[in-house]
Amino acid sequence: MIPVIVTPQTAALGIALGLLFSLICYLTTNLSPGGMITPGWLALTLVTDVVRAAMMIGVTALTLAATKLLQRHVILYGKRLFAAVVLSAVLLQTTVMLALQHEFPLLYTAQTLGFIVPGLIAYQLVRQPLAATVVSTTAVTLSTYVVLVAGLLLGALPVG
């Protein structure tokens, strides 16, 4: 699969669509789909590079495992929990980036938000039931992805 390069306008629309679908999901089910910006970002990542999306899911799983391990030894709740989860995700994503940057130098260009998204998903996985979070995140991400791909295929959205 050849990665697609989306324009900043298409990226902003993807995030906005993800926010809209996330809000609808939250208001109808009272479940957060991995954070409000996460589905839009994941959908954009799926459009541009499936490998990067798979790596993000892997880092999310590692972050969840690290958080569960950390919770056995440290009292984490509220803002401390959020900070610990996001910091763990950033450290794990940075480790993966440093390990792979020589093999795949273009894999991590302009991916600042991609370092935070695994932490946002893992935070919701800690706070909500695991299956409900996975289902809601997947459904909202796929909804956003379908709308983005349809717009790209129909030529309604610009491609770089």
TrEMBL record:
Membrane-crossing residue ranges in chain numbering: 12-29, 41-69, 81-100, 106-123, 130-157
Record flagged with keyword Transmembrane: yes
Keyword annotations: Membrane, Transmembrane, Transmembrane helix
A GO biological process held by the record: capsule polysaccharide biosynthetic process
Taxonomy, superkingdom: Bacteria
Gene Ontology CC terms: membrane
Name under which the protein is recorded: Poly-gamma-glutamate biosynthesis protein PgsC
Organism: Streptomyces glebosus
